[in-house]
Amino acid sequence: MDTTKYRAFAGKHFGGFSDLELLITAFTHRSYLNEHKSTAKNHNERLEFLGDAVLELVVTQHLYNNFKEPEGVLTNWRSALVRTESISTAADREGFEALLRLSRGEKRGSERARQQILANCYEAVVGALYLDQGYDAAKDFISRTLLPTLPEILQNGSWLDPKSRLQEMVQSREGFTPIYKVTSEEGPDHDKKFVVGVYVNDELKGQGEGPSKQAAQVTAATQALKNYSKEK
Predict the structure, then answer these.
(1) φ and ψ of 185, to 5 deg
(2) Residue tagged active-site, from 48, 94, 106, 123
(3) 80 vs 56, which has greater pLDDT?
(4) For domain 4-156, is the CATH number 1.10.530.10?
(5) In what order do the strands lie in the sheet with 203-210?
């Protein structure tokens, strides 16, 4: 295996890596092992498990040290920072995708699947860095690549849940409150599917489905936010 690109990445981002195999494992998706059983022995899920804990601690410490908001608000801010969309974007900016080791099938996956793989890889790299160079090195990496996105998250209100974001935006722009209506319901009690529409001044702005009314409402609100963003 040619390790040149991983060595270059480690040198650029971390000043090197004592155990380069650990870093390579962080970029190895489970699916890759199925097609390379003779050359790949480990995938990144255990490192992801470790990195997830390190990531949450670093973000929590940063929020605690720098903000005086109550626990509930800080929890929402932390959730926005460590969610799939945020950390996959950070991984993308740092050039993770070119280093991913995936099966042919996973390479052709959906955009959502790609985001999830990148987010998991980011956590795995954090875990590998923690093992190789310690907590401070992992903290520095997170502080450099993820924490700078917090001001934008606070400015655009994306730390709020979709229903709250939609309500704030609609009330500010139009002076109305979104109304959610179940438009269809099907399936047995143990396997229901609800379809919900969200209306503003009797106009349908978004529609979503889910296994509960609440889940369908969240999906509908998310769709409505996307539709509003297209109208800008």
Answers:
(1) -150, 125
(2) 123
(3) 56
(4) no
(5) 179-186, 193-200, 203-210
